[in-house]
Amino acid sequence: MNRYEEAKSIYAALGVNTEDAINKLRDVTVSVHCWQGDDVIGFDSKEALSGGIQTTGNYPGKARTPEELMADIDKAFSLMPGKKKLNLHASYAIFDGDYADRDALEPKHFAKWVAFAKERGMGIDFNPTFFSHPMVKDNLTLSSPDEEVRAFWVRHGVACLKISEYFANETGVPCVMNIWIPDGYKDIPADRLGPRARFKKSLDEILAAPYDKEKVYVTLESKVFGIGLESYTVGSAEFCLSYSTKNGITPLMDNGHYHPTEMVSDKISSLLLFNEKIALHVTRPVRWDSDHVVLFDDETKEIAKEIVRNDALDRVFIATDYFDASINRISAWVTGVRNVKKALLFALLQPASLKALQDASDFTSLMVCQEELKTAPFGDIWNEYLAREGVIADYLPEIKAYEANVLSNR
Ligand code: RNT
Ligand code: ZN
Question: Among 105, 113, 189, 246, which is least packed by CB within 10 angstroms?
């Protein structure tokens, strides 16, 4: 008997069908962020990264051009199992001598990305970029009291809706367009309501533009604080959740965007009860919103468990969001995305009967079962899944070779 067959029978004894688990995982799409490849720099401006987010490290070999980023995406995606979508930011527009500012971006500036995605049979998700730009005034965009600034960013939002619809039309896959603004204050504000009222008005103005709601899902991402914006964040959790629910858009939770003892895994069930769809940015905050590479750790597993146990794989838009510049970026990318899929498989390999133990108040059995599952032969099922997806298990040599042959020449 090979290792998979043996593991399959061990799981069967626990009441788990490994074939069902693998087959379910094969249908799950993860939206992979493009910005791990170049430290969130993009191609449309020479501005430093702003918005209270930060990449740290200067590992050699980051992508400097669209061609390099596309090559790196190809390499990284070839080592990630299962279905993927490409998640782009507006700052990754590709200009051929036809530069346009953020408020004048058009679908044609993303034609090369569309060709890239179509050749690979992938959909594209999108993000307006409300940072790293001279029109971010005093750390404010859509909530700015300066009408010229606010209007500029509203136009950017509307331009991005059109581009999102273009992605959906071209690829045949609906586009998730995520709105996140960095707006906030370093120190105690005198007026907390005003900025939020302006943000609300700006969102209303963006969403008043016509777009096909079957093709574009607008999500709104909240945040608790940013670097230099420690005291007040306009797009707080309460703001974003209330706005999303009231206006029929989708709330997005990034698990780096809460106080350290707050867990997104505990929030998913509540949001599922009140929203048709929800969205996630899966990341790893280390003491702050540091965007470390996602590991196969307890919270990632717990997030996956909440999606699977609540039968919500088709209701949750799962995207990755991390940026580590201190290690090989391809490895960072691949390791994080593989861990998201791993966590989902781990969740799919838990028996449905655990719920009944809870309802029967048999917490003794529940604890023992949950603990036993931790040492079940998960690795053998994971390797079988990789083999069926045609992805190698041992990816480090591939990455080392790419570093030696490609990245080190940059
Ligand atoms: C920032 C948010 C946001 C960004 C990306 C680049 O804290 O998490 O999602 O990481 O848009
Ligand atoms: Zn995020």
Answer: 246
Distances (CA, A) of 97 to 94, 100, 104: 9, 9, 15
Bridge partners, 137 (sequence order): 140
Integer Cα distance of 125 and 145 in angstroms: 30
pTM, to two decimals: 0.98
Tokens of 361: 């108040």
**What domains can be seen in the chain, in order of their start residue?**
28-348 (3.20.20.150)
243 CB-near residues (< 8 Å, 6+ apart): 200, 203, 220, 249
If phi > 0 it is left, if psi is from -120 to 50 it is alpha, else beta; for residue 185 that is: beta
Residue 373: strand, helix, or coil: helix
Mean pLDDT value across the chain? 97
| Cα-based distances in Å from 159 to 6, 165, 210 | 54, 10, 11
**Ligand 1 neighbourhood includes 40 CB (under 6 angstroms):** yes
Q: By the 8 A CB rule, do 265 and 308 touch? A: no
Model confidence at 1: pLDDT above 90: no
Q: Which residues are catalytic?
A: 180, 221, 223, 254, 257, 281, 289, 291, 321
